[in-house]
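Quick one:
INPUT:
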């Protein structure tokens, strides 16, 4: 079955379960703040559709002009042809030299919220299409929708919906706070946030579940604050037993992100191993750090953070050595975290210019992610142990408070 039609029943069913929730959001509330997600920042061909009757508009020079009416599950395509958008809809082709195309569902059904379709997924809200900023010969596709509906697609994408309800609530509050403090991060590209780990993972309607939607609803409008300001609610999978200070990850003091004992022992990445050979390490050093040190002879950890993560790594070779930031090395070599140690393996060690040259190095580590802020696997453990979402959040974000966003912002504006 074509993917366009395959999930529409599931998506609509999820929307039915949440319709009552959505209808209670006030138009002027923080919960209804529009979030722009760059679901496809750089793509050449876009397929659009709707689950109900929709309209494709052209927004140009401050004016909206109707381009086409789209019936339920009718397909329209948009192609970028050398900077000009070609719209194919209702057996007609229209060239759009400039402006932004916006697909909206104008009808609100009684039992479910109409959905829009872009490329290969269904979404709530509306879809925007325009020439990509970085590559004008391609297209950027943006999903614009209210904050709470955005969170419906984030929470189950970031945390399994089978986890305890209090853990899902912590994820909802952290994700809500995070996006509010990162709005406009990609404004130059025409949207607020990415749908990936660059921002927060967002999967649209098809990732939603009734359980995770309920967690969003139960925490509607709740945000985390410190010293009367929204916090940057960083989170990650697991720390390996000890979270990291904010300073050691982000380079500046974050008073509410301090190293604490983590309870993430159930994480599948609590302990991990990775082996790399000499040639792989040489290639990483050349490509990512622009340094040719020859054959790798030795890797030494010369500086650790307070949480015992690698801060600085020295790599010695037959042509010299290089000192590398632990975070940058972790990303370049695709290690799970900076909480690791290195062991050269005797297997295949050779002698080069009278120097023992290991062919294999084993990285032995713990945790998954940057380690600063809330540990998702730790939140799961604490929720199973009976802790509430507020208690869990205050543990991982030290000295913080949980507020209703509208009430909090109203007080600040007085």
């Amino acid at each position: 079955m074509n993917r366009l039609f395959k999930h529409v029943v599931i998506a609509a069913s999820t929307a039915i379960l949440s319709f009552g929730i959505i209808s209670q959001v006030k138009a002027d509330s923080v919960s209804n703040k529009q979030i722009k997600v760059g679901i496809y920042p750089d793509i050449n061909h876009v397929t659009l559709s709707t689950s109900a009757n929709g309209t494709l508009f052209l927004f140009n020079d401050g004016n909206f002009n109707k381009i086409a009416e789209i019936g339920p599950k009718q397909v329209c395509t948009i192609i970028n042809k050398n900077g000009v958008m070609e719209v194919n809809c209702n057996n007609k082709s229209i060239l759009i030299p400039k402006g932004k195309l916006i697909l909206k569902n104008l009808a609100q059904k009684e039992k479910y919220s109409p959905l829009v379709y872009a490329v290969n997924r269904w979404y709530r809200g509306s879809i925007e299409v325009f020439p990509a900023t970085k590559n004008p010969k391609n297209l950027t596709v943006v999903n614009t929708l209210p904050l709470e509906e955005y969170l419906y697609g984030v929470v189950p994408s970031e945390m399994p919906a089978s986890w305890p309800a209090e853990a899902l609530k912590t994820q909802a509050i952290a994700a809500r706070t995070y996006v509010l403090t990162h709005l406009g991060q990609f404004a130059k590209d025409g949207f607020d946030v990415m749908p990936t780990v660059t921002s927060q993972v967002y999967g649209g309607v098809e990732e939603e579940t009734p359980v995770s939607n309920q967690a969003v609803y139960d925490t509607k409008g709740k945000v985390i604050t410190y010293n009367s300001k929204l916090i940057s609610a960083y989170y990650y999978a697991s720390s390996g037993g000890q979270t990291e200070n904010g300073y050691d990850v982000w380079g500046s003091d974050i008073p509410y992100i301090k190293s604490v004992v983590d309870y993430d022992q159930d994480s599948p990445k609590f302990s991990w191993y990775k082996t790399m050979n000499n040639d792989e390490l040489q290639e990483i050093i050349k490509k990512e750090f622009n340094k040719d040190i020859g054959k790798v002879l030795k890797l030494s950890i010369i500086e650790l953070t307070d949480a015992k993560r690698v801060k600085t790594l020295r790599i010695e070779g037959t042509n010299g050595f290089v000192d590398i930031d632990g975070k940058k090395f972790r990303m370049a070599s695709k290690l799970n975290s900076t909480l690791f140690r290195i062991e050269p393996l005797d297997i295949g060690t050779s002698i080069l210019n009278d120097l023992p040259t290991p062919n294999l190095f084993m990285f032995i580590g713990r945790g998954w992610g940057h380690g600063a802020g809330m540990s998702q696997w730790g939140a799961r453990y604490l929720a199973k142990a009976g802790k509430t979402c507020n208690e869990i959040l205050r543990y991982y974000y030290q000295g913080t408070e949980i507020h209703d966003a509208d009430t909090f912002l109203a007080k600040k504006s007085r």
